[in-house]
Amino acid sequence: MLSRRHLRVKVMQAIYAFLQGDNNDLAKGEKELLKAIKKMYDLYIFILLLLPELIDFGKARIEERKQKRLPTAEDLNPNTKFVDNLLLAKLTNNIYLRREAEVRKLSWAGQPELIKKIYNNIEASDEYATYMNNGDNSYVTGQKFVQSVFKKYVATEEMLHFLFEEKSIYWVDDLDFINSMVVKTIGTIGEDAGDNAPLLPLLKDDDDRRFMLDLFHKTIIHEKEYDELIKPKLQNWEMERVAFMDVLLMKMAISEFLNFPTVPTKVSMNEYIEISKDYSTPQSKVFINGILDKLLADFKRENKIQKTGRGLME
Q1: I want to staple 33 with a disulfide (CB 3.0 to 4.6 A). Which of 14, 159, 248, 297 is the partner?
Q2: What would the DSSP string read from start to end of 146-179?
């Protein structure tokens, strides 16, 4: 599920698109933010669906080999350990996965060559050979094997990345995180789980959804006001010369300082400095930290920081 940092990044991306575009419809901007979140979950479901597809392909290959003109003894009596993997069987039969795929209209139909390539890579691997011949048929061993080959032969497959780029502009930046969710999902489905084993949610609870939407709204509504707070702290810099992303991250931090009583100021500071390392310039972390330090000192002196809850009093 998304951490608060991931939520901040999605909000940052949505605000960036809103402020850089011609649209000034806040409701439409919110809709785009929620769409981006929905698309993240689409990607999660889509990747999970790929694993049962590999089983179906494996079963079809076993049957093809049996029908060869001159089948070998191995063709006629194949090792079915992979296609009988209990973890993969649970995913194949999972009612939530099937329901979400149907509702979201997600399917791997039309991608036989990609599925074949991934299956071939797995089948040719040392991990596969070891798993198929180690004599250990335990659920946990099968589960760990699926996690291992997913990380090595599915998550890294370039053809898969190209497909995701074609299907949605939202998926490229989210792929690493969603792959980690898939790995976690594989690891959390226990041996006793039935067909109704729950999938991971993208948002932890309603508080996270409310945090995300409030941060989006309050930052945009007050962004001109926050401009005026930032400008005096720039010293010899003009606002127009500061990287747009730096200003945006500072505005989001200010919004959290002033409007989110349950979020410690230290947390807000650290989060936006960390985000700047990935989304802005190499100098941004120092620049943003310096400006926010000055602003925070002013806010405290003017008694504008009102934090509530245990350990949050300023």
Answers
A1: 14
A2: HHHHIIIIITT-HHHHHHHHHH-TTHHHHHHHHH
